[in-house]
Amino acid sequence: MEIPKAYEPKEVEGRWYPFWEQSGFFSPESTTDPKAKTFSMVIPPPNVTGYLHMGHALNHTLQDVLARWRRMAGDRVLWLPGTDHAGIATQMVVERQLAAEGVKRQDLGRDKFVERIWAWKEHSGGTIQKQMRIVGDSVDWSRERFTMDDGLSNAVKEVFVRLYDEGLIYRGEYMINWSPGLQTAISDLEVEMKPVKGKLYYIAYPIGAAANTPVEGLAEAYEAANSESVPRPSGSGSGYLKTDAGEFIVVATTRPETMLGDTAIAMNPDDAGSEGRYAAVVGKKLVLPLVGTEISFIQDEVVEKDFGTGFVKVTPAHDPNDFAMGKRHNLEFIQVIGKDAKMTDAVPEKYRGLDRNEARKAVVADLEALGLLLKVDEYTHNVGHCQRSGTVVEPLISMQWFMRMKELAEPAIAAVRDGRTKFVPESTAKIYFNWLENIQDWCVSRQLWWGHRIPAWHTPAGEIVVARDEAEARERLKAHGLDSTVELREEQDVLDTWFSSQLWPFSTLGWPEETEDLKKFYPTDVLITAFDIIFFWVARMMMMGLKFMGEVPFRTVYINALVLDPQGQKMSKTKGNVIDPLDVFAKYGTDAARFALTSASTAGMTLALQESKLETSRNFANKIWNATRFVLMNCDEVLEAQEPVDWETELSQPELADSWILSRLSRVALDVHSGLGEYRFHEAASVLYQFFWNDFCDWYIELSKPFVTAKESTPQSLAVKRRIIYVLERSLRLLHPIMPYITEELWQRLPHKGETICTAEFVSHNSAQLDGRAEREMALVIEIITKLRNIRASFNIAPSVLLKAVIAPADANAREVISGMGDHIKRLARLEDLQLVEKLEVTRGAARAVVSGAEIAVPLEGLVDFDKERARLEKEIGKLTNELAGLEKRLGNADFVARAAAEVVETSRQRAEELTDQIAKVNATIESL
RNA sequence: AGGAACGUAGCUCAGUGGCUAGAGCAUUGGUCUUACAAACCAGAGGCCGUGGGUUCGAGUCCCACCGUUCCUACCA
Asked: How far apart are CA A515 and CA A510, in angstroms?
């Protein structure tokens, strides 16, 4: 049988997914064993508008590795796929489309607009699903869910009503983050703080009478008062000015336009005390410039004495801190900026309708004209931006729906503390605790059209009734003795998308119905996700799972790394360094990309995607391809049988290399199991890589060549071929979870059992095959061959020149091993003659080497440069002596011998003896030169 | 401001308190050895950030410092 010389991923990958999907291998029902354990995961639902980014590629690969591994290991596996409706993102996509047609959503009306979104979803929403099929995700498509599905929408209503009934959801007027860009409230988590270069304006507010005419010289007075050279009168602070024009206080602000809504000036109580620097102004009244209203001083602990002048203007309707102060001091709340980010009618006429930025300019100009603008400093400060639209968030007081979080958070904290859910890596649990322990109420309402409508109805009298549907709303009205026949207006607001996502682990399984799936698959085994949604999603799912299922939603949360670009930079559209995973998959092959991602998944929190790692992985795929190609080209008589190869049914005795490779294979199976079982993905990948490449290809296949390529078939050559196929076929099975396509392709060409490698039995380790002795003996053979090659290389002897070697084994066992493997040693070290002796004679003109089980001499009459040889051996001695010195120091320490584990002391002793012996031998060799 | 993580070969990273600190890439020398030049063979390359401490023993545990990165909160 002949296959292409190099692996062509494109030729192979397209073929298998449709076969797998159509055959239903990824359904839990494909497991026929009724006693099979279940293994379930829900996918972190990507946005329905989304496309796969590098983070998904990693996240999905790791989930798929686990799913495929558990499936092959015999579990009933459910990996449930789906998408979320991404309220804001999706609405924006469709709005943009409409804008291209010159239509606004308001022109269409709510119902038509929502219809339009559904239509968009039907036609363009499937990108991510297509891409998941490219990655090879072994999800059960028959159970795919969408957060806006009927079932999931019911779950949302049910949860909302129950939480409301328990008082955990409430409606109220509070300060929220308003996104003028999106025209909706957003939650604290959706606000991104970004440093912005702005200005700090120092403004004078007159005490007593209004300053209707420009005040002269105030700025100079302020400067003088704050100058270091002029001693400040005791008891007076820099924020208080007394001039011929009257008394003034000075405040510093980054947002002068909000002064139009000031209803107090605050200072720290210390400054107001009888000893305080601003005692003189306490109790006096101020006049708000440009507006003319009278405002008072208040005292509040939150005011920092050291910042600015120590006076703070208080705008309770436009700043979260001022809002809190306003509540504490019963201040008036004047909304001067509207939801459109323009000035409201509450401000003097000339500012009305101005955008908040224009208003700032106007206010600053007018203050300057009045002589009240004293100073402007350059000032960089953090400003809240809307994550989605990028506009500056406006803190506004607004009527919204909130979820009370504190009492929901407590059980979620406890569940991780007592280990019902485990975070991997462990340090990520701290992120979780930290957030939940400082949790704030969650603003869940959004002023959007796309999403789950809040199940609430308003009566004409202004009553609000929360219910699952209108009929129930009327019943509830009746139950409260209210008129149930009035006209009801349905609540306009929808819920934050995360409100439905937080129900994902059970709503997708049919909740609130008590379905079979729910019983079978909840709680899920593991959730794999990225650390940036621990708050948004993981913590909230924990709270909801515990609340409504009475049980954690997942046993383990594995936080996968953040994928960085090759320079270690975070990928971002603005930086332009985003790598499209599909490009990577196309360039290197899906299996190679998956292998690279898996082997880069160490305990760290970041993962820089190196080109070299992808190349290495591509080469690995090619290696797998070619190793199989070698077999396919040379083992026709075994392949023709097309029956699974059984190691034990062979005629000839296995030799050392056979026991060795079996032992290695068993150990690898063990390591892959434990690696994946403990989420050490890197370990599983690297163990497989090293086994397949170094052990199987470099040694086992090389050792097999004389038999495999022999022209005549003998019982022995047949046995060797069968064994090589046996090991290869099992290696493919072990590799399949990480590299699904190439392994399926090659496995199908080898003798195998079953329809697909996807459901072939995973190789479990066989302790009867673990053979420490064979591994030690093979190590001796490998070391001897390596030393011989080393001698050849150091003396620049061409591979075509055959050498003679004399070996003195250290003991009878070593002699047996070396003599048994003599032919192999001769061939692989390119010797024409190998002689075993009791003791090496002192022969001049021979290169020498010492390994722990033997001494080696290679007569090189006329070829040896004695100085070079001496240098080589002295270097060897240096190494050995160094190591021995360390050991002797340790062994010379009485405390070590007395206190260290007996085993450790013993191995140290043995090693020291070995080293002493070797050093003596190498020394003798040097002397003999 | 508070918290967390990370500093190991030129680069990217592994490394269970004790068996010679490893891998891939890069690098040096050699090779078309009938699967693979995306390969094969053999090398070289390490005060494990710095300074203390715990311990018989520290790359590994503790403390401090230096450096890098991230998260949370936000002062007008």
From this structure: 6
